[in-house]
């Protein structure tokens, strides 16, 4: 049985074309408005999107930048950290999190993750803190927040900054033990997100944003993103050139009102997967962080009783894509090899790298597609 026999559209990891067709008029109108105005850089659409994103997230300040990696770099630059300062981040994540730390001459310190949620393990963070530690960068992996209440308490105890990597988790909500709820990216001193096209809120190119509630940090990071300039042609600090262009802002502004329905669609698809796989001892469904909602940027299984790579190949033969996020932890990457770390030091991350498999997850999955995907997975692991 192949995909064509199901009668469905082609199954994709992300179906941006179908999503576009649903809101084509809104997207096209926004792009046309920008082209007609010729305000391609720092135009009104960028300011409008900033205001709408501040309203949506509850962040006091949003700084639109060129991409999520830039957001992380500018955030760390804004903190005024010095070469040799240590920054703690999980070893099981996309490379950008450690990349910006290394680029700035800071020292990345990696920690293990929790087997169930796949997010930063708080006890590993606690053990990694030294007198040189200046910041913690938790990653809200696959769409749910890390244990932010514990991380913030630890940061306060040791006088550390917290920069949230929320590039996969925009729209996720974290509820503290006192009942207070905050959006992913608005809990730490600074939050960062990406608008890469496949993200839950994605543009049609590159884009990113920085969140903060601190006026001084906002002013500093806004200047850094603009060549270190506050007054035109007067450069008070070393900066970079990172900005969201007006066409991408128009796309994002058209999509933002739909973000909650996009999240609901992803959660519905995840519930279907959960129901299909929840009682199968060869597959572990994504664990949930107790205090966070999950917006399912990815739906990531842990294949523990079958051959993960063989399963992936079998799915590919049926026209079903599946991805491995991430096959190599940071401490085993050639560019980041460090004599402080050896194989086996981060057993959970290494085990996850060997068994994770992400299934198609997007807003346009229908029940026929989900039925074909889940039945195929179950048949292939018998």
**CATH level-3 fold name of the largest domain:** Aspartate Aminotransferase, domain 2
Supply Rg: 21 Å
- Beta content comes to 5-15%
Within CATH, the superfamily of the largest domain carries the name Type I PLP-dependent aspartate aminotransferase-like (Major domain)
Q: What are the secondary-structure elements, in order, as H or E?
A: HHHHEHEHEHEHEEEEEHHHEEHHEH
**Whole-number count of domains:** 2
| Unreliable residue stretches | 1-5
Sheet with the most strands, sense and barrel status: 7 strands, mixed
- The number of distinct helices, counting runs of at least 4 residues, comes to 14
- Report the end-to-end length measured between terminal Cα atoms: 16 Å
Strand order of the largest sheet: 1-9-8-5-4-2-3
CATH architecture annotation name of the largest domain: 3-Layer(aba) Sandwich
Number of strands: 12
Structure overview:
There is one protein chain. The model is unreliable at 1-5 (pLDDT under 50). This protein starts with a helix and ends with a helix. The strands form 3 sheets. It has a 7-stranded mixed β-sheet, with helices on both faces. It has a 3-stranded antiparallel β-sheet with strand order 10-11-12. Strands 6-7 form a two-stranded antiparallel sheet. With 382 residues, the protein is an alpha/beta fold. The longest helix is centred in the last third of the chain and has 19 residues, at 259-277. Helix 4 packs parallel to helix 10, helix 5 crosses helix 6 and helix 11 packs parallel to helix 14. The protein is globular and about 65 Å long. It has 2 domains: 22-256, Type I PLP-dependent aspartate aminotransferase-like (Major domain) (Aspartate Aminotransferase, domain 2, 3-Layer(aba) Sandwich), CATH 3.40.640.10; 258-380, Aspartate Aminotransferase, domain 1. The protein is built from 14 helices and 12 strands. It has helices at 3-6, 16-22, 24-37, 44-57, 68-78, 96-103, 122-128, 148-158, 215-224, 246-255, 259-277, 308-317, 347-355, 367-380; strands at residues 61-65, 86-90, 107-111, 133-136, 161-165, 173-175, 181-183, 190-194, 208-212, 283-284, 299-303, 356-359.
């Amino acid at each position: 049985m192949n995909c064509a026999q199901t009668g469905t559209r082609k199954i994709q990891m992300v179906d941006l074309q179908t999503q576009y067709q649903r809101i084509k008029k809104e997207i096209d109108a926004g792009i046309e408005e920008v082209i007609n105005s010729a305000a391609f850089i720092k135009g009104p659409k960028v300011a409008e999107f900033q205001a709408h994103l501040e309203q949506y997230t509850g962040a006091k300040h949003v700084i639109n930048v060129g991409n999520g990696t830039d957001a992380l770099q500018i955030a760390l630059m804004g903190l005024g950290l010095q070469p040799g300062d240590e920054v703690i981040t999980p070893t099981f994540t996309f490379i950008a999190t450690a990349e910006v730390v290394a680029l700035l001459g800071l020292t990345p310190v990696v920690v293990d993750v929790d087997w169930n949620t796949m997010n930063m393990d708080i006890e590993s963070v606690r053990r990694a803190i030294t007198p040189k530690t200046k910041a913690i960068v938790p990653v809200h992996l696959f769409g749910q927040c890390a244990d932010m209440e514990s991380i913030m308490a630890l940061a306060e105890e040791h006088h550390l900054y917290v920069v949230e990597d929320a590039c996969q988790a925009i729209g996720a909500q974290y509820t503290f033990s006192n009942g207070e709820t905050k959006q992913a990216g608005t809990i730490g001193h600074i939050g960062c997100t990406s608008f890469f096209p496949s993200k839950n809120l994605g543009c049609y190119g590159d884009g990113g944003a920085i969140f903060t509630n601190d006026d001084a940090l906002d002013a500093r990071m806004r200047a850094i993103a603009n060549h270190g300039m506050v007054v035109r042609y007067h450069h008070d600090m070393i900066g970079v050139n990172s900005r969201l262009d007006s066409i991408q802002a128009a796309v994002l502004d058209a999509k933002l009102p739909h973000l909650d329905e996009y999240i609901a669609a992803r959660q519905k698809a995840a519930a279907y997967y959960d129901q299909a796989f929840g009682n199968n001892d060869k597959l572990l469904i994504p664990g949930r962080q107790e205090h966070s909602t999950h917006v399912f940027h990815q739906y990531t299984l842990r294949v523990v009783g079958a051959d993960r790579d063989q399963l992936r190949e079998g799915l590919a033969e049926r026209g079903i894509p599946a991805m491995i996020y991430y096959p190599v932890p940071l401490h085993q990457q050639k560019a980041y090899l460090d004599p402080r770390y050896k194989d086996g030091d981060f057993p959970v991350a290494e085990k996850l790298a060997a068994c994770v498999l992400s299934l198609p997850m997007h807003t346009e999955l229908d029940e026929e597609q989900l039925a074909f995907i889940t039945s195929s997975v179950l048949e292939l692991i018998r």
